[in-house]
Structures are given as structure tokens and as C-alpha cells.
What we know:
Layout: H1 2-37, E1 41-47, H2 66-74, E2 76-82, H3 88-97, H4 101-104, H5 117-128, H6 134-139, E3 144-149, E4 163-164, H7 187-198, E5 203-208, H8 220-226, H9 233-259, E6 265-271, H10 303-306, E7 307-313, E8 321-323, E9 327-328, H11 332-340, H12 356-361, E10 364-370, E11 384-391, E12 394-399, H13 410-413, E13 419-423, H14 439-452
Parallel strand pairs: 1-5, 1-6, 2-8, 2-9, 3-4, 3-5
Antiparallel strand pairs: 2-7, 6-7, 10-11, 11-12, 12-13
Helix pairs in contact: 7-9, 8-9
Amino acid sequence: MNSKKTALHLNELNRTMQTLLSILVAVVALSLTAQAAKPPNIVFLLSDDQQWTDYGFMGHPDIQTPHLDKLASEGLLFRHGYLASPICRPSLASMVTGLHPFSHGVTGNDVIKNQDRNEADRPLREIFYKNPTFIKALTDNGYLAHQSGKWWEGTWEDGGFTHGMKSDPNARHGRGKSISIGRKGLEPVTDFIDMAVAEDKPFFVWYGVFLPHTPHNPPKRLLDKYTQEGRAQDVAKYYAMCEWMDETCGELLGHLDQKGIRDNTLIFYICDNGWAPRSVRSDDPHQKKFSDYALRTKASPFNGGIRTPIMISWPGKVVPADDPNLAHSLDIYPTLMAAAGLESPDNLPGINLLDEKARTERKAVFGSVHASHNISVGNPDETLLYLWCVSGDWKLMIRYKGKDEARHSVINSWDTKPMRLYNLKKDPHETNELSEQHPDKVAELRKKIEAWHPVNM
């Protein structure tokens, strides 16, 4: 009798254990499914006014960027990245909307400079914010989003962020506490990350650091490092600013590691436009008319203005690779949507950079240059200066005579050639113009450009 009771007891115990085991397996499976379905955190690193060559991983012989070098080695690197515009405000506006400047309307930095900015911008922002943005798409789907650094289009609330630093909507590029990020520590950003982690919510960080942008006032230790005999002081300051930018990125990425969230965080890096110290073009006769920075860089259609490295890092999800294909700032929106498991608007011209097939099938990228300091609200082509196309090894720039009224018109007024053709594989710095030698290539690329954006001026 005792033996039967013992056997029954053991059978009952086994059934109980099997039930508990089944429940445990189900709980673990549900947990793993939930983890797998949890969207990634996203950190958007955006440097400001930095030449495409000026990184260690891009082969610069002097500038040291160890943190971005490490990011490049661990992620998907596009050395041939391009921007929709070579100047700050329209470049950022294109990133967040996934549209070219002539589509969203923000073609330059100013509607009318030196007037009440908030009032002058009001009609422009009404047009601009009719477009979806990836920021609003993320917050509409449960993300917390923090803005720091440059943000031209009103306040962070206007941009759809849930959190942000105080800025002045009546000032150029949002001057105020927000613009000090990086230069004066990262506490607002790291505090936001800590809060999002504590609430167990996916987050997006817009780190639009005002570096290496002027004022070039790097820490003395960095300036001393780059100061040397025979190197112009404006060059040494700029080099030091590039490393300072890199240091702040390292600090931010280090905080992700400290919080143990790096594995489920996608890092996207890009620069808004190129820049170079004026001393590097001291032998250019046109440079004498402009003292702010080197011509053929910021606000121009040359590679010095529109080319940038682009990087995506997501441990365990993005296979590290040095991808030779073309990338574009308009790809940010569809890429981040795909990573977050969300749909992109149908009218976006960019591609998902995480899609290898889409990368390899792309044959060309396009962009425009408008007057940098006068926007024609509602008539973007009125200020059009260039359209350009990069296809294979070749790049064509078409010159237009749009309204360019500010003193910055000297940036491009020296260029009177109607067409410029370059072989970027042989001549990435665009020193040898080839339009007369290759008229067939000019005709081919001109046809592509005019089909992409017909212009009536």
C-alpha cells in the first residue's frame, strides 16, 4: 500500500514538475520574443562643418579620431556618402524629412537675414511641417526622443521630440543652452538616457553637436597637440576641433556601455556638410573675396561641401563592412524606420541602407545647391544655383543663375562654367574638369539630372 502511495506521489510530482517546466519554457520563450520584438534605441551622431577627409578612418595623416575610427571598424561604413545640401539648415531638414530641399522648401539658412527670424520663418515652417519626419514617426510609436545641439526649425516641441534642451527659436541654428552640448558636457543627454532606461522605453537621441563648427576654441591641450611650425593657426584650431568632436562621441558611446544597452542601440553617424580653413586655399585667387572658410567646401556642390562618411553600428544586427556603394543623407529616414520595424512614407527617394540588395542596385545619387542666405518661400527653384549627380565614377554639376543676394554669394559666383564633369575615382578632390573631353558622359548625366528634377527658370 505504501509502495502504491509512493508511486502515485512520484507520478503526481513528475506531472507537477513537467507542468512547471512547461510554464517556465513558455515564460522564457515569451521573454525572448519580447526582447526580440523590442525596437532598438537610436543614437544619431551629427557633426557640424567637417570635411569628408578629416577622420583617422578616412586616412587623414594628422587628425586623430579614435572613437569614430572604432565605430567605423565595428559597423557598416560608407565612405562615399552624399548630402542633399551642402549647408546646415537644408541639410538637416532633408535628413529628418527624407526629401530634397526643393520638396520640403528649406533651401538655405535664412529667409531674410537680420530680420525677426521667428516671424520670417513662420510661413516656411508651415510648409515644412506638412511633411512627415522620422522623429514624429518614432515618438508616435512609443519612443522617447531628445534633442540637443543644432535644431533650426523652431523648438524641440515643434520638431516632435518628447524632451530637449532650451533653445531660442528666433536665433540661427537654435542658439542657447542646446548649442552648448558637447562643449560643456553631456549631462542633459546622459540624464535623458538614464531616464529612458529606468522607464524601460526605447529612445532616440539627436546629438547635433556644434563641433567642429566655429568658434574654433578647442581645449589648450588639443590645440597644443596640433600646433606646429609651418601649419597655419586656423588649420591647427580646426584639427583640434575635429578631435574634440570625436572625444564627445566617445563619451556618449561610453555611457551606453556603462548602462549595458549598447547591444540594443543603433548608432548612426553623419556630418551635415563639409568645411575647410581658408588657409588651405590661400593660393586660390577667388579666396581673397571671402574670408570665412575655404571655397569649394561649405555651401558648394564640390565634394568638399557635399560628401561625408556615413556609418551604422548595431552589435549583432549589422555586420561590419566597408561598403563601396553610394549612400545618401536621404537614406536616414527609411533606414531608421526599417530598424524600428516601422513603415516609411511612399514618396521617399532614399533607400534602406540595411538592405544590401537596395545598396547594390542603386546607380546614382542626386542633390541641389541653393542660395545659402535667402530662401524664396513657395518658389524653391528661384534660388537654385546647382544640380548635381554622382553615377559610377563620374560626377556632373549643372550651374543655374538663381537669386543669390547675401554677401555669401561669393562662395559660388566665381564659377561661370555651365557644366562641370569630374572622374571621382581618379580625381576625388575635383582638380581636373573634363566636360570638354567627355561630351557623351555630360549628355548622359545631364539627361539623368533633368529627368530627376526638371527646372523652369
